[in-house]
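# nightly structure sweep
# worker-07 picked up a monomer target from the shared queue
# config: single-sequence mode, recycle default, output format = structure tokens
# input follows
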Amino acid sequence: MALQSMAQAPFRVVDEINQGMDPRNERMVHERMVEIACREHTSQYFLITPKLLTGLRYDERMRVLCIASGEHMPAAEDANKLDFGNLVKIQQGLVASAA
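# output follows
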């Protein structure tokens, strides 16, 4: 990340940067990446990872895309069982009730 100002690129792909990190360092790197990626006139960033810690900071200018595929996914006729919008509402309800 320190050398990114040396090379211009329209986008950057970060693949599993958190692999093998302890939670403290993973949070620190994620925070730094959000800070860099959300600046004006910077590259677009794509973070690819199978998992992230809970409670990370996100910027309103960020978009989180969850791609669900693989052999353990519901069949097409059961696709409504994996409704991410509904899962987000459930999570928000759980957070609100815990507060």
